[in-house]
Structure formats: C-alpha cells, structure tokens
Amino acid sequence: MTEASVFEGKKAVYFTLGCKLNFAETSTIGRLLKEMGVRTVRAGERADICVVNTCSVTEVADHKCRQAIHKLVRQHPGAFVVVTGCYAQLKPEQVSAIDGVDLVLGAEQKGDILRYLEERLPLLPAERKLADAEHEAYTVPTKDIHTFVPSCSCGDRTRYFLKVQDGCDYYCTYCTIPYARGRSRNGSIASLVRQAEQAALEGGREIVLTGVNIGDFGKTTGESFLDLVKALDRVEGIARYRISSIEPNLLTEEVLAYCAESRAFMPHFHIPLQSGSDEVLKLMRRRYTTKFFAEKISRVKELIPDAFIGVDV
User: Fold this and answer.
1) DSSP states of 248-269 as a string?
2) Terminus-to-terminus CA distance in the chain, angstroms?
C-alpha cells in the first residue's frame, strides 16, 4: 500500500494534450495524488511533481508534447517529471531522452502511477539520472496492453467525464490510436453505474461518456452500448448525459430510438465523417460510405428533430 508520507506536502502541476479521454484520465491522476496529500500548484509556485499526459495523433501533436515538456521543466526546475499518454507509449525512447524527464509510463502502466512515484520520488536528482541510465521507459508492446483503467472525473463545475471504453480494433490507415492504446476494452456496466452514482453523490449533474471508440463498448464484457445507455439513464441525480463521439456505423437504430425517448440523454451527437469522398474513405479504411453517412444523419433528424450534430472532416 502506498504511504502518504512520500507524497505529503508535495505540489503538482498537470498538463494534458489531446482528447477528452486524456483530460478525464489526467483528472483521475490528480484526484489520486490529492488523496495522497499532494495539492495542485497555485500561480507563481514551483511544483514538486509535473505530470504530462500526451497525444500522438500527428507529428504536430508530438512536437506540441515536446514543447510542453520543455516548458514545464524550465518553469519547475528540480521537479519530478512524469510523461504518460499516447506519445509516451509510441515513442518512449524519444520521450525519455528529453532533458528533465524522470519517468515515462506507457498505456498499461498509467494506472500504476502512484506505485512508480512512490519508488522514484524519494530519489535525489542525481540518483534519478542513474536510475534512468539503468532502466528503460516503462512500456509494453501494443499486443500486451490489456488493462482498463477506470476514470470518472469532474471537469468544470458539475460536469463529469466517465471513461466507458479504451483502445480500438479499427486500424484506420491514418490513425495511431490502436498502436498507442491497444485493443478495444471496457469496464462492466455495473462498475460504470457505480461510478455514475458516486458522481451524483458528489453533486454531479452532467456526465459526458468518453472513450476511443465508445460504440464498440462491450467487447470484453459481452455487453452492449445500448445496455450501458439504458442502465446509466436510470441513475438518479444525473440530469444530463452526452455521448462525446460515436462512429456512424456504430450509432445503431436501437440507440437512436432509445435516446429519442430517454430521460437524460441529450439530443447531441458527434459523428466523425473524416472525408466527403468515398475513394478517400476507402483509402482511410473507414467502415462506411458517404451515402451511409448521409442516411444516418437523416435518420437522426427524423427520430430527434432538434438534435445537434457535430462532425469531424
């Protein structure tokens, strides 16, 4: 069991790049550290711990991650710098070579951040450098990423972000996410309902469902996204749910019909298109055509006339 004495009185700063899922996971890390006695830095203070949760969707994202790490190292000299997230998983050697980085955690190790910090935090800077020279960054090959790390964290005010799924089995041509986060996996409906109930007890009124490919929910538990939506809709105290993003081929007629009549699911869908060209969609290995996408949007509007629809292009 982690001893609070290692963390007591420490100050931390958090920096997140990328998607809502990353923000939810960073918030959970912050909550774990807070429970161990670590508080978030105030303006003008120097942190003892810096946590950077990275993105690696594009080369530009990688560059932004490096910039963020360099900036934090300059702003908080002597701080223990932890880098995790997709960039850390995909290019751990590159990340660990950045001056000032003390610890690199891949997708499978992210949930064990307290244990890694407990082992390394007491070391002096010179001892950390020696340890870095003796050990590789803590990652595993993509095929060995199996753990689902729960996350239900408060964002702004009474809105919570509930991670329901992680990883992806789609392997679109342009996308690094399956390599960075592993295969599709999820928590059980029972565990996710408990997290939603806890959010309600804490005063949460709205929950955003997050994940990499949330419509693929149920791969590891034999459940379905429709079953999840129905179960969450019954949680007392939560007034609104939003589905952060869902593939058009996974937004089923049954899910749409239920959301049209549900108590708390908002008429709000973010449905990625990516391209308006069937040729490009085929090259991308997307699992729909422009005709299918147009028909799906029309069906949403038929069932839910006032629906708001966001699109990635």
Assistant:
1) TTTS-HHHHHHHHH-SSEEEEE
2) 47
- 163 SS3 class: strand
Chain-centroid distance, C-alpha 129: 30
Amino acid at 173: T
Task: Give the C-alpha separation, 181 to 171, whole Å.
Answer: 11
Kindly give, in sequence order, each residue whose CB lies less than 8 Å from that of residue 40, ignoring residues fewer than 6 positions away.
Answer: 11, 12, 13, 14, 30, 34
**Domain spanning 4-140: CATH 3.40.50.11810:** no
Exposed, middle or buried, 14 (CB in 10 Å: 0-12/13-18/19+)? Answer: buried
Tell me: the pLDDT tens digits for 75-123?
999 999 999 999 999 999 999 999 999 999 999 999 999 999 998 888 7
The token duo for 263 is 């108590």
* Domain boundaries of the chain, sorted by first residue: 4-140, 144-310
Tokens of residue 116, six digits: 């890694």
Mean pLDDT over 237-251 rounds to: 96
* Local structure of 129: helix, strand or coil: helix
What does each C-alpha distance from 263 to 152, 183, 223, 254, 270 come to in angstroms?
A: 21, 32, 21, 16, 20
Q: Which two tokens stand for residue 245?
A: 């993003």
Residue 49 main-chain phi, psi, to 5 deg: -130, 130
Identify whether the C-beta of residue 51 lies closer than 8 Å to the C-beta of residue 23. Answer: no
CATH class of 144-310: alpha beta
The 10s digit of each residue's pLDDT in 196-234 is: 999 999 999 999 999 999 999 999 999 999 999 999 999
**Of 162, 214, 180, the residue nearest 55 (C-alpha):** 180
Provide the pLDDT for residue 120.
87
Reading phi first (left if > 0) and then psi (alpha if -120 to 50, else beta), residue 24 is in alpha
**Tens digits of per-residue pLDDT, 31-43?**
999 999 999 999 9
pTM score, whole prediction? 0.87
Identity of the amino acid at 42: R
